[in-house]
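Q: My labmate handed me this sequence with no annotations at all. I'd like to see what the chain might look like in three dimensions before we decide whether it's worth expressing. Could you predict it?
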Amino acid sequence: MADKKKILVVDDEADVLTYLTTLFEDNGYETVSAVDGVEGFNVAKKEMPDLISLDITMPNQSGVRTYRQYKEDADLKDVPVIVVTAAGDPMRRFLKKLHMFPEPEGFINKPIDEEALIKMVAELIGQ
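A: Here is what I predict for the chain of 127 residues:
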């Protein structure tokens, strides 16, 4: 049997972190998690996930800065990132305007549409 695809979930809200890791695991993915951007970058470097679910509004280091780190890193730049945020469409427009960085591969607003999120993940990394 093929190894499960690994998703890194980065979110500072414990209930959202639990919700997303459970959702992904229930749909056949392996998960690792982090509670802020600094930890999220370190975990990504160590675990080399197939996909990253990234919150934008977090303490210690914003998701925007963390996203830039992922896309600047030679090992992580090709890992798809789905931004999961309550900041909504204004944040999506802001991320599209980042110069020298590709737009995130996916964007999901909170509250999360489970079906849309799982479909997006499957399209990006399969399972």
